[in-house]
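Worked Example 4.2. Read the sequence first, then its structure tokens.
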Amino acid sequence: MPEARNGTAAPTVVREPRGLASHILVLLGVSAGALAACAKIGEDVLHRETGPFDEPIRDFVLAHQNRAVRSAFHVVTEVGAPGVVVPAACLAAVWFWRRRRLPIAAAVVMAPAVASGLFVSIKRAYARARPAGGAPRREQTYSFPSGHATTSAAVFGALGHVLWREEMLPRPAALTLATVPALVIGSSRVYLDVHWATDVLGGWSVGALVAALSGAAYERVRRKTREAGEPRVRAAAA
């Protein structure tokens, strides 16, 4: 055991994962912003103050719809449904656990599990009716928030963060994965007239909150894993 010059043992210093503090701060910032957005949008929906925002967007979309784009968004909305995204996230978590031996798989599982529970509970609490386009597509559940937007933002956000931090994707690719699928999937719901714009904004906000919390859980597990697996570095004597 190394000793300091006065003969006493030098203190043990544990090397933290690179950039841990800054990543935690960013995740806290995202969480705070998403929570504020959730609260504001939820308040406006509760007091039925979203009409001046939702109705002009719906009118514009319906007036400028294109058959080819509509067909493409039909595919997007089917592929991006919670019933597809949630099982896919669970499969990704299994891959992390079995192939890479990464206990951080829990963070990937946390995102769809929490997101699904949240959007179902919030839908029941608000009991908001869908726009008229929801009836022909047999969209029977309540409207706020969009389940597609919530789960896609939560799952892809958490997955992008984990893949980047594990150095499996470069930062630009991870950021694209974390944002673009959720934006396209959420937009498809407004374009197909099965959700109001604020339903999608609310879903993105809830999903971003869940993704940030999942990222924080990952950082915590990652720190513990590195502390257990990395050698401890003894500080040199002053």
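Now turn to a second chain, presented in exactly the same format:
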Amino acid sequence: MPSNYRYIVVEGPIGAGKTSLARLLAEHFSGELLLESPGENPFLANFYRDPRRWALATQLFFLFQRVNQLAGLKQFDLFERPTVADFLFEKDPLFARLNLLDQELALYQQIYGHLSPQVPKPDLVIYLHAPPDRLLARVRRRGAAYEHGITEDYLKRLNEAYVRFFHEYDSAPLLLVNTQNLNFVDRRADFDLLLRRIGEMRGPRESFNLGV
């Protein structure tokens, strides 16, 4: 890993493969692995069944969970071993804007504003993206119980929100990766190509797109 990449974040919508890639990167670089724990959110399954009723509780649980995970990531820890996470804290408001009513969103934004200074900035963000139908197929294939209520419409709206978010994102160097024709878990050559692409990063925003 380049010495300036001590804290790497892998991001993307549900089904993009961010957790699998984060695991591979942490193992490859002998780093610490920091993972979201959606299964620990007691409101999530209810949210997918009845979004309007459970959106605020689901959102606030994730917000506090992520702050607690990242607040302990001190600067001196990053010099000991690199850290790879499968979530970007700055992305959290994306879900809030997508799912909350105006009054709920105003409350959420106040809480987020108080908590965000505690969270360190990543040195590199890897954004994984794919068409919504491919995302849904991956979600269905892994069969997590709390994801049974996810609809194609929700994934489409979420995917569009991610595209808008990362179109504007400039808080850290960003590598945009189209995963439609990539399989980092089952094809080592694909993972090696990504590692090479990370090592070749020179600008603040670059793309990796493997053609058919």
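Notes for the reader: The first helix runs from residue 18 to 28. The domain at 7-209 is CATH 3.40.50.300 (Rossmann fold).
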